[in-house]
């Protein structure tokens, strides 16, 4: 009798996993890829506000392992204003992409280090106006931290109504860069919903964030010690900056401090801020070449004109507001920029993603909106007016971890955009007891980085040699710590 029950249960689960998805959401072919998909893929829209026509696009990859039991992970890229296809194409999606030849469609191959090896994963374009997400009322492109978190929570609730078979799966939130704001604020909304008894009840377990924006002071003071530790500035320059700025590099009215910080800007000019070990890709665009000097790493001279704002936004791409205007709490309007070559931050080559995602065959296959609705996909959009209105993320992390939710904060140690020095400092500032002393973690008997574990299931981890987008540079290492974190096993 028990065997019959198990057989019937198995048949039921197969039926649910096959038939519960929204009609028309199944992706049956992926242009550029030859062969059978290793798991089911779905794509489409969730309408989060009918009155304003707000629609968030998602691409859902079922686990290649056991989709009915493996965790569900929501992935968010940062910006704010950058598409989560950044993660799909360049980091931990199911495919590796060959560089296109003469504008042809890229060829796709299976990614041996895809995060879908061990989890179901939803790539969400958020907020509205990013990637393929859109609103019929463009006033909705005026947004901020609070509104984005609310909209993403609404998305999750509605998504699970469309895919109820996954409600029992453990849910994790993940992202990088400005998702250091997206993830904890969304987690806060999720927990509030659970505690208030909102249905459907989400089985939320924790979150992980890479090179995350978190706190203006900690992150703002991170560059100088990072630059010195990486050998980018001399002992004497460090001494001069520290003396002139009185040890505080984030905000100052001292002309002497500004002088030395400008000197630092000149010294690091030309480096790839996302990974100082990597070359900086230069687009064939005169405006960018003319203005790529004087990176505004010191938070000074924020820029008075639309042209200078546009350049600053491009310099910092996936985390530019944190460099450009986070101190004031308001990110200024992005001027309309129509050149295709301006969709990616400086030093970043988004040719592969642009070529693939703007192909009409691809757009049809993955169920995006018509071109009349979303004209072109861009890595980072310039149509948002975004307000950083929720301040420091440290209280959010403290609240979530004190309630027992697991958190992994990881840093590529060669990222100059959101340096590990600031992230290590603010995680330590939570004041939790150290339960796993600073030590190396290994892959194949080689040091892959360093880790420190705290009480309340908080872990800080570095990845040796990685930049801002960790899985892009260290895919094997990323899959390793990702799987161990989801499983709750030691790294």
Automatic annotation (TrEMBL):
The Enzyme Commission number assigned here is 3.4.16.-
Among the entry's GO cellular component annotations, what is one? Answer: extracellular region
Q: What class of enzyme is it?
A: hydrolase
Q: Quote the subcellular location field of this record.
A: Secreted
PROSITE patterns in the cross-refs: CARBOXYPEPT_SER_HIS, CARBOXYPEPT_SER_SER
A GO molecular-function descriptor: serine-type carboxypeptidase activity
Domain of life, per UniProt, equals: Eukaryota
Is Secreted included in the keywords of this UniProt record? Answer: yes
- Which keywords accompany this UniProt record? Carboxypeptidase, Disulfide bond, Glycoprotein, Hydrolase, Protease, Secreted, Signal, Zymogen
Q: Which SUPFAM superfamilies match?
A: alpha/beta-Hydrolases
- A biological-process GO annotation: secondary metabolic process
- This protein's major location comes to secreted
Q: Which residues form the signal peptide?
A: 1-20
Q: What does the protein in this record do?
A: Probable carboxypeptidase.
Family to which this protein belongs: Belongs to the peptidase S10 family.
> What is this protein called in UniProt?
Carboxypeptidase
Query: Origin organism of this chain?
Result: Pisum sativum (Garden pea)
């Amino acid at each position: 009798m028990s065997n019959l029950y198990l057989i019937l249960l198995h048949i039921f689960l197969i039926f649910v996993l096959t038939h519960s998805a929204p009609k028309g959401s199944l992706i049956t072919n992926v242009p550029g890829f030859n062969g059978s998909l290793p798991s089911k893929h779905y794509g489409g829209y969730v309408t989060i506000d009918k009155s304003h026509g707000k629609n968030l696009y998602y691409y859902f990859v079922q686990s290649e392992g056991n989709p009915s039991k493996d965790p569900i992970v929501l992935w968010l890229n940062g910006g704010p204003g950058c598409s989560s296809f950044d993660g799909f194409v360049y980091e931990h999606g199911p495919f590796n992409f060959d560089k296109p030849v003469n504008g042809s469609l890229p060829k796709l191959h299976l990614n041996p280090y895809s995060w879908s090896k061990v989890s179901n994963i939803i790539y969400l374009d958020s907020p509205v106006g990013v990637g393929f997400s859109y609103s019929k009322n463009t006033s909705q492109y005026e947004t901020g931290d609070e509104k984005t978190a609310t909209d993403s929570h609404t998305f999750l609730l509605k998504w699970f109504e469309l895919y109820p078979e996954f409600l029992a799966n453990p849910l994790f939130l993940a992202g990088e860069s400005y998702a250091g704001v997206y993830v904890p604020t969304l987690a806060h909304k999720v927990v509030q919903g659970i505690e208030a008894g909102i249905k459907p009840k989400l089985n939320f377990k924790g979150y992980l964030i890479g090179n995350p924006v978190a706190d203006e002071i900690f992150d703002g003071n991170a560059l100088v010690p990072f630059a010195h530790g990486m050998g980018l500035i001399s002992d004497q320059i460090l001494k001069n900056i520290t003396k002139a700025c009185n040890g505080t590099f984030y905000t100052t009215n001292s002309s002497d401090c500004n002088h030395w910080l400008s000197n630092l800007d000149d010294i690091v000019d030309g480096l790839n801020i996302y990974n100082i070990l990597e070359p900086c890709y230069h687009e064939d665009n005169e405006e960018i070449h003319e203005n790529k000097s004087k990176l505004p790493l010191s938070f000074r001279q924020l820029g008075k004109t639309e042209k200078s704002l546009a350049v600053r936004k491009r310099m910092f791409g996936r985390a530019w507001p944190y460099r450009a205007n986070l101190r004031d709490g308001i990110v200024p309007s992005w001027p309309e920029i129509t050149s295709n070559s301006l969709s990616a931050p400086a030093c970043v080559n988004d040719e592969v993603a642009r070529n693939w995602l703007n192909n009409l065959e691809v757009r049809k296959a993955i169920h995006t909106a018509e071109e009349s609705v979303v004209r072109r996909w861009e890595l980072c959009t310039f149509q948002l007016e975004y307000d950083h209105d929720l301040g420091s993320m440290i209280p959010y992390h403290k609240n979530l971890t004190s309630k027992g939710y697991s958190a992994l904060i990881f840093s590529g140690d060669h990222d100059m955009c959101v340096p590990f020095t600031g992230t290590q400092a603010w995680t330590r500032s939570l004041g939790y007891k150290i339960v796993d002393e600073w030590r190396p973690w290994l892959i194949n008997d080689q040091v892959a980085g360093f880790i420190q574990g705290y009480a309340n299931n908080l872990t800080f981890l570095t990845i040796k040699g990685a930049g801002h987008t960790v899985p892009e540079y260290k895919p094997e290492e990323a899959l390793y710590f990702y799987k161990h974190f989801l499983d709750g096993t030691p790294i």
